[in-house]
Design brief:
Length: about 725
């Protein structure tokens, strides 16, 4: 056999601490057909700075769809199917880099996904620029070894082969046709080169993670052995590996035979279905991809009654609505007939390669008036690759190489729902069959009507009222995840274990909004001292900070008077400009220079905030430049007057020192104490401290100015002048 090795690589990604699915870094690979060995090369590294500590990286694997992970141990939504992913841990301790290999023999062809993340996030809000986080990098590379000339086992034709040695297993493949209900594999004429009974092991199927349903058949001391497989995957190549368990020098000769039992589907479609299809949805043609209408040659309903069909196929149309959003529409109406003789089958096409990043939702509603027998139950199975064709005997919805998901409706419980999170890329099938209690009438003639609603959505229930559905992207692959708020958690933000009550949400909103009213004393002081421009800036800051935090709340207590991004920008702009004008006002420079610096600084601050809104230098830069101007002006005034400026010790003790202390405490709270849990009161303290510091730091008014003397500021036709000169001499 000729083996070919191939290598696939993707760029490294910077890992994040985990708080929701968007923090996990996803890698998407495609394994080619006839692959016999898959090897992952996982490389993890960290920075060399003192802030870098030992860290454990968790890596998840899954075939067909992104892995379903739950590092936080939260609850999934009710009726959701959950298969924990296969994962390994990579520890970065003293070593800066770690290299790990993961081998998978006879892997399933198709999409494979890897997700990597750091442990749970601590929840501290870090100001960008105050601290340098340690970079943790992760890269996944894939090596595959595949056969270019894998022998094909033809159905019903015995194939002789030889296993040369235990180190060189035999690989063959067989194609499973559509509508196969059972596969029969037989190993005969199995003898060694020493004319003894063979000792071999046969592995049927490929390995998939997290669950692998590879079937094993061991032939020890017997010449012939066989294995039956119910519901093998339709229209797929099935790998078969035969390996010798004997001595290293003895070869084994075997003869393999694969046969299939194909059921005859009874079609419920007719020519009217195709007419309704063309009238209701333009574009798809009869028999095209996306429709499960039968191909030419399948018997119509009246003719198929001549044979005992093993399933009834219902025509269904796939309707693409948006990205990771699909609706399935039944051509014969939303209700499908279900009987006890053969299962009713619906094809849900999810094999485009872009459907595995959402949630498949199947709703069943039983028409209770259509069931003639009491206590009758309609059982259903949702499975991938092949349908479950024996629901009356197989209650766990298992097929040859996969595990389906059961769901049922009855006269006592007429509605049921199933949610398949991140369904794997494949053809999915919904099988329904009527089960009657024993001894209750004639079950063969009974029929039930079940309304089926099936659709693919990015996020189930749009993540609810306490979550936001985000569309994530890795190269050209799109998938969705829920970002929860207000203490809610879980895959669809349905876990209320740590959820905030409505009272707590209202309290948080009131604290963050009403704390801005502490700017009113600063505004009053500025107006009293005739700093009207500064008072206008403080009013602007108070207004937009109040309504930004009213719109920024994660719960139900939310009010947005305009676009969220606009409110956030105006809040950040007002905060930085308030600090800018306050320090320049303290500098006591000439008015014309002060107002020029006001306007020029505001324009530069607006530009820098547009470039990077959360950068620490957007606030620290203007503050430091204004402080340099203030210190320079104070030194100039002190040198000119030949004493310290400001000269009054009362000004220093009762105003400047308290204001500076409040400002430093506010900066410390803002930069080092805020977390996601205490944000609503620590940020409120920041509002109060900043507003109070402004009221203390504003300089006194000029001595020659009399506030509120508005009449002297108005220009009149007649003016009364007052002579303040003293009379030195009197003429008599």
């Amino acid at each position: 056999s000729l083996y070919v090795s191939e290598y696939f690589s993707q760029s490294a990604q910077k890992l994040s601490f985990y708080s929701w699915y968007g923090n996990a870094k996803l890698f998407h690979f495609h394994v080619p057909e006839d692959t016999v060995l898959l090897r992952w090369l996982l490389q993890a590294s960290r920075g060399k700075g003192p802030e870098c500590t030992s860290m454990e990286i968790t890596v998840h694997f899954r075939h067909g769809a992104p892995p379903i992970i739950n590092p936080l141990g939260t609850r999934f939504p009710a009726n959701a199917t959950v298969h924990p992913s296969y994962n390994i841990s990579i520890t970065l301790s003293s070593a800066v880099q770690n290299t790990t290999f993961v081998n998978v023999t006879t892997p399933a062809a198709g999409d494979w996904f890897i997700a990597a993340h750091l442990p749970e996030a601590v929840g501290r809000i870090e100001v960008k620029g105050f601290s340098t986080p340690c970079p943790y990098m992760f890269q996944a590379d894939m090596f595959v070894l595949r056969l270019t000339d894998m022998p094909v086992l033809e159905p019903g034709v015995p194939m002789p082969h030889t296993v040369v040695s235990p180190a060189k297993p035999l690989h063959v493949k067989v194609f499973v046709p559509k509508h196969t209900s059972r596969m029969w594999f037989q190993l005969s004429s199995c003898i060694t080169s020493e004319q003894r009974a063979c000792n071999v092991r046969v592995l049927l199927g490929s390995i998939t993670l997290p669950q692998s349903f590879q079937r094993s058949l061991t032939c020890t001391g017997s010449i012939n052995c066989s294995l039956a497989l119910d519901s093998p995957p339709w229209e797929k190549w099935l790998q078969i590996m035969v390996e010798s368990l004997g001595t290293a020098n003895a070869s084994v000769s075997v003869e393999m035979l694969a046969s299939f039992t194909v059921c005859r589907p009874g079609s419920t479609s007719s020519f009217l279905n195709f007419i309704s299809l063309n009238q209701s949805q333009a574009g798809p043609r009869p028999g095209a991809a996306g429709s499960s209408a039968p191909a030419a040659g399948e018997a119509p309903r009246n003719a198929s009654s001549q044979w005992s069909s093993c399933l009834q196929s219902q025509p269904i149309v796939r309707e693409d609505l948006d990205v990771v959003s699909v609706r399935y529409r039944l051509l014969n109406g939303p209700s499908v007939p279900v009987n006890s003789l053969s299962p009713t089958l619906l094809l849900l096409n999810l094999n485009t390669g872009m459907d595995s990043g959402g949630s498949l939702v199947v709703n069943l509603l039983l028409n209770k008036t259509s069931v003639s027998l009491a206590n009758a139950t309609v059982v259903a199975c949702v499975s991938a690759a092949s349908p479950v064709l024996s629901l009356n005997t197989t209650r766990n919805c298992s097929t040859a190489f996969s595990q389906g998901y059961p769901v049922s409706v009855s006269t006592s419980s007429g509605e049921a729902m199933l949610i398949v999170l991140y369904p794997q890329t494949d053809d999915w099938f919904l099988s329904l069959q009527l089960l009657c209690p024993r001894g209750q009438g004639d079950c063969t003639s009974a029929e039930a009507k079940v309304t089926v609603f099936a659709y693919l959505t990015p996020c189930f229930n749009d993540c609810g009222p306490y979550g936001q559905c985000s569309l994530l992207r890795r190269h050209g692959y799109l998938y969705a995840g829920c970002s929860c708020k207000a203490g809610w958690g879980g895959w669809s933000c349905t876990d209320d274990t740590k959820a905030q009550t409505v009272g707590a949400q209202n309290l948080a909103t009131l604290l963050l909004t009403l704390s801005n009213l502490m700017f009113l004393p600063a505004i009053a002081v500025a107006v009293y001292r005739y700093y009207l421009v500064e008072a206008s800036v403080y009013t602007y800051t108070m207004f937009f900070s109040t309504f930004y935090h009213a719109c920024d709340q994660p719960g139900v207590a939310v009010m947005c008077i305009m676009d969220y991004d606009t409110l956030q920008y105006c809040d950040f702009l007002g905060s930085v400009v308030s600090i800018w004008v306050t320090i320049l006002c303290m500098a006591h420079v000439k008015k014309i220079l002060k107002y020029v610096l006001f306007v020029l600084g505001t324009l530069l601050i607006a530009m820098s905030l547009q470039l990077d809104r959360r950068g620490v230098w957007n606030m620290m830069g203007p503050c430091l430049f204004a402080l340099i101007i203030m210190v320079t002006a104070w030194v100039h005034h002190g040198a000119k007057r030949r004493h310290c400026y400001p000269s009054s010790w009362k000004r220093w003790v009762f105003y400047l020192l308290p204001g500076i202390t409040l400002a430093f405490i506010a900066i410390s709270v803002y930069a080092f104490m805020e977390t996601n849990e205490n944000y609503y009161y620590t940020h409120s303290i920041w509002h109060v401290l900043v507003a109070c510091s402004v009221a203390f730091l504003l300089p006194p008014r000029d001595k020659h100015k009399k506030p509120w003397a508005w009449s002297q500021k108005l220009t009149c036709r007649y003016q009364i002048c007052q002579n303040d000169r003293e009379e030195l001499y009197a003429v008599t």
